[in-house]
Amino acid sequence: VQLVESGGGLVQPGGSLRLSCAASGFTLDCWLIGWFRQAPGKEREGVSCINSRGGSIAYADSVKGRFTISRDNSKNTVYLQMNSLRPEDTAVYYCATVESYDKASLLENEFDYWGQGTQVTVSS
Q1: Do 116 and 6 touch, CB atoms closer than 8 A?
Q2: pLDDT score of 34
Q3: What pLDDT does 48 receive?
Q4: Which of 108, 2, 4 is nearest to 48 (CA)?
Q5: Which residues pair with 50 in a beta bridge?
Q6: What is the mean pLDDT of each run of 10 residues along the chain (124 residues)?
Q7: What own/partner pairs with CB < 8 Å and gap ≥ 24 does 37-43 have?
Q8: Which of 7, 14, 24, 78 gets the highest tally of CB atoms within 10 A of its CB?
């Protein structure tokens, strides 16, 4: 099981980025996928999650209305579209997965496998 994040970078406040999480070694359609982030000096927090069939989605209150999670099982990839970015969104973003048909969750201890992370910096 391997997850590889991409799409991070430097963006100005109000800008957009789309993160990708590509899975290999397994097929996504039976797995829950979550996005988490960790800012310097802070604990890692859940950002968004989508369940195996896409029928259950969760967002942290801080990103609701700005971020959108989606999955393309045919490409074994999950995306996080981030709009209206703010400096406080600056963090390393990780995707994580667990083999489960449960509903979406933002609890990191429920996830078994993690990617290496991609840096997102929002600054003018």
Answers
A1: no
A2: 96
A3: 97
A4: 108
A5: 33, 57
A6: 95 98 86 95 96 89 97 92 98 94 91 96 97
A7: 37/89, 37/91, 37/92, 37/93, 37/94, 37/120, 38/91, 38/92, 38/94, 38/117, 39/88, 39/90, 39/91, 39/92, 42/91
A8: 78
Token pair, residue 72, equals: 């393309």
